[in-house]
């Protein structure tokens, strides 16, 4: 909901199955009392659930607290009751040489326990200081982070040299005859990840240190200028803001390059780009309640996770089979079928090479594990596990093994597939 002049925007919706109303206003320079009166009336009729009101009110609601001079040219307003969390200011008027606080956030008093943090940031590039608040919800599920390789690390010559040297040393010290191959493969990923994380952390710490120093310098100069209004301090403050903007601009440039490269390489593929677009619907598919197999309804995240885990554990559990009289009966029947209907066969050497094991031993448990993602079925009951479609995300090692098997099999495909069926061969002629 908005007005014709674009002075306010009201949005209403659900987050984690709770209704919120977000209102942002930009009051005019004059007749703020009339504007707030009409706007708050419209907001009262629109509001549902928790109201979060914020914006530029263009007036100091409490001049003795919200103005550095202790007074304001506009009369104070008493139509809004608020709790003062800070004595900082959000705007500096150069003509009046005065700091004021004219940007606010408002919450209903009975929602104040959900307020986790509120802060007034530094005036970096805009004439207004940013305001931030953090709200909590009892239904919030903390997001688990997954480490991903930073592509720019590989373009750093020092990082590339250290990684190559570490790989050489690792596989020299852990020879196949001395260590189990599967253990060597799994451990080398941990070693390389640690080296890349250390380099990435060092670069990030250096960049963050520079940003913190500039931010602290800007904060100190801002506080000093608020007290003295000295033009020399204002010049130093402007120079520090420009240096910080230049430092941040480098990060923005790298982010823009990564975005362009990502859209260029993934734009026509069904991959991460599509996954990120679908990810926007995550709030719509949030599971707020779930019934277990006994039909009991649960609302807390840990109880929902337990109900889902038990359902899919029972669903995917393979029941034990009764022992057969002939354990090789299935293999015997399969060989009989293939012998009868297969017209072409591989030579004994080719068959032996194709059946050679990739490694000795079984696969690691994490390789055989999968993450199950639930997608709601259209028209399904979202309170039951049967109303969701599970998608299993497998380990990347399985994709490597599948590629190896496909590469082994590819040279023998022309000898096994009839020339009348070229559609199943990548290099075969089109029908």
UniProtKB/TrEMBL annotation:
InterPro entries: Endo/exonu/phosph_ase_sf. SUPFAM superfamilies: DNase I-like (SSF56219). It comes from the Eukaryota. This is Endonuclease/exonuclease/phosphatase domain-containing protein. It comes from Pelobates cultripes.
């Amino acid at each position: 909901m908005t007005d014709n002049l674009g002075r306010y925007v009201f949005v209403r919706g659900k987050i984690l199955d709770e209704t919120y109303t977000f209102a942002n206003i930009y009051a005019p320079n004059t007749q703020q009392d009339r504007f707030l009166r009409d706007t708050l009336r419209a907001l009262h009729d629109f509001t549902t659930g928790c109201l979060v009101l914020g914006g530029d009110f263009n007036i100091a609601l409490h001049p003795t607290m919200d103005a550095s001079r202790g007074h304001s040219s506009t009369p104070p307003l008493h139509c809004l009751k608020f709790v003062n969390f800070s004595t900082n200011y959000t705007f500096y008027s150069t003509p009046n040489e005065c700091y004021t606080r004219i940007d606010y956030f408002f919450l209903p008093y009975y929602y104040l326990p959900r307020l986790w943090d509120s802060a007034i940031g530094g005036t970096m590039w805009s004439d207004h200081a940013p305001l931030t608040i953090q709200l909590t919800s009892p239904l919030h599920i903390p997001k688990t982070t997954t480490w991903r390789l930073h592509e720019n690390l590989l373009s750093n010559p020092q990082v590339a040299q250290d990684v190559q040297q570490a790989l050489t040393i690792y596989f020299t010290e852990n020879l196949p005859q001395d260590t189990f191959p599967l253990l060597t493969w799994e451990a080398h990923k941990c070693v390389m990840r640690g080296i890349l994380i250390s380099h990435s952390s060092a670069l990030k710490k250096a960049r963050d240190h520079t940003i913190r120093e500039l931010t602290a310098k800007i904060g100190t100069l801002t506080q000093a200028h608020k007290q003295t209004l000295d033009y020399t301090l204002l010049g130093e403050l402007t120079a520090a803001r420009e240096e910080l903007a230049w430092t941040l601009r480098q990060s923005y440039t790298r982010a823009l390059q990564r975005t362009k490269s990502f859209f260029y390489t993934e734009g026509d593929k069904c991959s991460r780009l599509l996954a990120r677009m679908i990810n926007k619907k995550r709030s719509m598919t949030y599971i707020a309640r779930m019934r277990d197999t006994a039909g009991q309804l649960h609302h807390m995240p840990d109880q929902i996770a337990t109900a889902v885990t038990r359902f899919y554990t029972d669903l995917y559990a393979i029941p034990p089979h009764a022992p057969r009289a002939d354990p090789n009966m299935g293999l015997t029947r399969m060989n009989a079928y293939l012998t009868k209907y297969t017209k072409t066969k591989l030579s004994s050497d080719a068959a032996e090479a194709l059946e050679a094991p990739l490694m000795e031993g079984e696969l690691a448990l994490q390789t055989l594990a999968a993450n199950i993602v639930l997608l709601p079925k259209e028209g399904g009951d979202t309170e039951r596990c049967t109303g969701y479609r599970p998608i299993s995300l497998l380990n990347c090692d399985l994709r490597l093994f599948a590629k190896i098997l496909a590469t082994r099999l590819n040279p023998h495909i022309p000898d096994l597939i009839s020339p009348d069926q070229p559609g199943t061969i990548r290099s075969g002629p089109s029908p």
